[in-house]
Amino acid sequence: MKIKVVPSTSVINSKNQNISLEQNIKLRQNILSDQKIICIVYIQNTNGRFGNRMFLIASAYGLARLHFCHLYIELEIINKLKSVFILDLSPLLISSSTFKSLTRNRSKPMNRITKIAHCDYITTLTRPNAIPPGTIFELEGHWQSYLHFAKYYEEIRQRIFVPSQSILKKVSTFFIEYYQRQLGYRPQFVLENHQSFKKQLSQFNSTTWIGIHVRRSDFIPINYSSNDAYLFDAIKYYSARYPNAHFIVASDDKVYCKKLFGDRSNIFLTPRSFSFGDDLVVLSLCQHSIITGGTFGWWIGYLAGGEVIHDKTYPSGCSRREYYYPPWFLIDGNVRAHITSEYIL
Fold first, then answer.
1. In the list 23, 246, 262, 301, which could disulfide-bond 308, CB 3.0-4.6 Å?
2. Which residues, listed in sequence order, are joined to residue 139 by a DSSP beta bridge?
């Protein structure tokens, strides 16, 4: 497998960039606190599971930020995401009571527009007044183009999809037990936040952690699942590139992965006690990723940053490859556009 390495320019390291982010947030808070609610980006329903909901929230956030709108998301969706993330959407997010009062205001009703999107990037939404004043702009579908929120990458990773302290504490035991077992040393990690914990892992004992997500159960019947050769080729690539590479595997088929990877000393499966949220967080703490199809794996790669190897087996459903895959996703060959077509991107 030949892979051209395109380093990610998205990972935030410098203090100056972090200060810039904080100043940007304060400026936005001042602007939104001083203005009336002129438009609302709204999510009422979701199609699909956790990864799809992340795409919807990220896209809604990106559009609200771009057009100085507020944001309203049904409580059920908020609670599902808050089971894993801090989900700091302030100051855009408005309460249910505020939203209801606006929608029931007969003297000055807000115009409601519903837009359906799945994977394609809707370029017209970047134009001024694409969401006019007095509008409730409702998102339906999947909204799986990262370009709808690419401008706010720092905020997505540092404020919104930030793991809760309880999950960070739980997944830290995975690494602590590894180092105690392998080195006879029990490290004391400072779990201030996701980024600081990730930095500690990257500096500890010169270990390079590579996350592997293997999705199988619902993908095998529809021919979306990756084959074993892809996984081993990707492991071989990282092993040659990083001499002290260690791999963490999360999967919906742990029995299969246990048989596949056997007792390799540098490949570890996440514990059975881990939830899907624990799996997502522990893989996002890795420096690089190997992912198979699906939005859950996509978000693992996006939140982890670094190099991300993605299999071409999974059809993105996009009309253009770059709508779904950031330029730092390293893909083995062309990507199928749709399951019902031989067309490739």
1. 301
2. 115
Assess whether 88 and 178 both reside in one domain.
no
The answer as to whether 23 is a domain residue is: no
R_g over Cα of the chain: 21
Looking only at the bridges linking them, the beta strands covering 267-269 and 245-251 are: parallel
In a domain, 209, yes or no: yes
Strand, coil or helix: 92: coil
First to last CA, the chain: 18
How many structural domains does the chain have? 2
| 62 secondary structure, DSSP code | H
User: Cα–Cα distances in Å, from 60 out to 40, 142, 221, 258?
Assistant: 10, 11, 32, 39
Same domain? For 225 and 319 the reply is: yes
Residue 72: inside a domain: yes
Phi, psi (5° rounding) for residue 233?
A: -65, -40
pLDDT digits (tens, 9 = 90+) for 141-159: 999 999 999 999 999 999 9
Q: What is the pTM of this model?
A: 0.88
Q: For residue range 13-72, list pLDDT tens digits in order.
A: 333 444 455 555 554 544 454 458 999 999 998 888 999 999 999 999 999 999 999 999
Residue 6 lies in a domain: no
